[in-house]
What does this fold into?
Amino acid sequence: MLFRLGMLEVRKYYFLYGLCTFDNLRRNHRFANILIFSGGALFNALAAVAVVCLVENNMLEAGMLTYQFTYFSQYYIFFALLPMPYPDGNYSDGKVILNLVTNKEQAAVRTYHVQWSEEEQQWCVLDHNQELVEAFADEAQALAKAHEVAQSCRPSRLLSSKGGKETEIFNYPRVPL
It folds into this structure.
């Protein structure tokens, strides 16, 4: 990121590193995820078509602004849907969509747990398959290990549970450099 002014953010790789992240969905289905990840490209396509229609119906004057708007909309659509991995290990929206369409597992958000075991009187770090990664007597050590594991496998969520109560500790979305 070059600089940030409130909500406005100027990045070094603005078009190349445009991607979508989200926390929780009511319906976390493959089709819903495809629509979410294709939302930016779909909106740009609809906006470009709307501008072309307005120009064609003489409601908007054709000029440099309308040409640049439609050009950059197409430019964004191309780079957003280009299925490619980024240098930081994240994927473009197009790559995530391709993985969702072809049922590749890496497109899914993985959930990791730090869970208190009453039987063994220790904190267990569980991976996304609910298999034990490591156990600790100290909660802070277990959380540190869980953060390390979840952060290395983005996108992921980290949940903690003790006494049947589950709390989200952290969400590691796919983020650009």
